[in-house]
Specification:
The chain is about 55% helix and about 5% strand. It is mostly helical and about 350 residues long. Among the domains are: about 60 residues; about 35 residues, no CATH class; about 45 residues, no CATH class. A two-stranded antiparallel ribbon has the order 1-2. Helix 1 packs antiparallel against helix 2, helix 6 packs across helix 9 and helix 6 runs antiparallel to helix 10. It is elongated. The relative contact order is 0.05.
Length: about 350
């Protein structure tokens, strides 16, 4: 049995296979032969039974009764053990898809956090241009008639305007005292918060979690020369955004189809009823072509320098298109014309392509 499997594999081996392909193709019969030898040494070993159950019965579509008979003969495990082994073999089958999902989520999260940091830095720059103490506001004084005492004015001259001038000076002194106290309090507050990072505090206030902040820190420290988030400026954020746009992870699609079955039992009872099964099989496929749009700001080539031969079909393209029409026309003739039905086994089913050999 083992020698026939090896010889069959040798016949199927294509011309372009290397040593690695031969070893991978021979792995199944070698393991099967080894399990037979080990079972002769230790009859309690179940490797052969599992190989027969999975590779022959399950892969061949055997029913439950076939598993029961093979188990009684001692050459296969039970049907329940086969199902448990299949679940064990399929554990973490979606780990790669979860990795794709996590990469896309992290990419979107970092982009969103970069936008928040950019908005925060822009707001800080605007506030630095004109700082007004809290509780104060600016007013337009162009309509006020303000007069200030001069050095050569008479000391003894007191009129109605002198009283208002003194009150204005008193108000100005009060304003300067308040502003001095405000500056001192802000300096003390800045010193007390010296260990905090305003950028991190802003991100936490915006609704991001500590885990999101750690992901953002790792990204910034891996791609930027700054060692603190507080040292980020708009130039650094622009560089990080450019890096993000150029390193977007590939997207993936989840496709599927429904599978409907109606299972009838031979002898119906209270615990064995006919079953209407509706399954949905899904498959995740990563995009082979990137969806990133090219940069529209940079012109690839002037339009006046583009030759017509660069986008119009050439004679070789027209000839290839004609050759592709031949299998399609032959299929239509064989299908629609009764006299050509005898050629149904010889016509080409599909247009030849680079994967034609694998489709056979």
């Amino acid at each position: 049995m083992c020698s026939s499997s090896l010889s069959l594999r040798k016949k199927r081996k294509t011309k372009g296979d290397g040593n690695g392909d031969e070893m991978s193709g021979s792995a199944a019969p070698i393991v099967f032969a080894a399990s037979i030898l080990l079972k002769q040494r230790c009859p309690q070993m179940s490797a052969l039974a599992f190989r027969f159950s999975l590779g022959v019965l399950w892969h061949g579509g055997a029913k439950k009764q076939g598993f029961v008979r093979a188990n009684r003969w001692g050459i296969s495990v039970s049907h329940n053990s086969t199902l448990k082994k299949l679940d064990e073999m399929g554990k973490n089958f979606d780990s790669e898809v979860k990795t794709w999902k996590r990469e896309l989520e992290d990419h979107h999260l970092i982009n969103e956090m970069l936008d928040h940091v950019d908005e925060y830095l822009t707001t800080q720059e605007v506030q630095k241009q004109e700082q007004i103490p809290e509780g104060f506001q600016t007013i337009n004084i162009s309509s006020l008639d303000l007069s200030f005492p001069t050095a050569d004015s008479s000391i003894g001259c007191c009129n109605e305007n002198s009283q208002s001038t003194n009150s204005d000076l008193a108000n100005m002194e009060d304003f300067l005292d308040d502003y001095k106290q405000y500056s001192q309090s802000e300096s003390i507050k800045a010193l007390s918060n010296a260990g905090n990072c305003p950028v991190s505090d802003h991100l936490i206030t915006s609704g991001f979690s500590e885990g999101d902040l750690k992901t953002f820190n790792d990204f910034v420290f891996d791609h930027e020369t700054v060692d603190e988030l507080n040292k980020l400026d708009k130039i650094d954020v622009g560089i990080l955004k450019s890096h993000q746009n150029s390193n977007e992870p590939p997207k993936y699609q989840i496709i599927g189809d429904n599978l409907d079955m109606y299972v009838k039992v031979k002898h119906m009872s209270s615990d064995k009823q006919n079953r209407s099964i509706h399954w949905f099989a899904m498959n995740a496929i990563q995009d082979r072509v990137s969806s990133k749009c090219p940069d529209n700001a940079t012109q690839i080539k002037p339009i006046l320098e583009v030759e017509n031969s660069e986008f119009l079909p050439s004679p070789e393209d027209n000839n290839k298109l004609l050759q592709d029409f031949i299998p399609l026309a032959a299929r239509v003739l064989v299908d629609k014309v009764p006299d050509f039905k005898c050629f149904s086994g010889t016509i080409i089913k599909h247009i030849p392509h680079q994967f034609s050999q694998e489709m056979k």
